[in-house]
Amino acid sequence: MPSTDSHGKEESVWVPAGTIEQIPVGQGRCVLTGARQIALFRLRSGEVYALDAVCPHRGGPLAEGLVGRETVICPLHAFKFSLRDGRGLDNDFSVKSYPVELRDGNLFVGFPAGDGPHTVADGGA
Ligand code: FES
Asked: What is the mean pLDDT of the chain?
């Protein structure tokens, strides 16, 4: 069962996901965080979003999609997803989204505790 903080919110496990410089402005990049492939998107506004890398429709590579202001369009069949919450905007699918933190140029993706990828740090239990 995921642990909670003193406010009752579910804690996150923060996993390193490379540096901000590895993601060209206005594009996405696929990174491996622990055992998961995550698509990171760096907007021209400076915001960075993280979604599961695989399109829930038929497995398209979302990191290679066309990035809009707060959307990504899957390169395979052009379904559009919100970068904020992974919701399908013109379809009934949705993709998992994750919080991202930028610390001294390094990116960290937050996974729910107990649901995170197996890393050396968490022992893979
Ligand atoms: S695989 Fe992404 S829209 Fe079909």
From this structure: 87
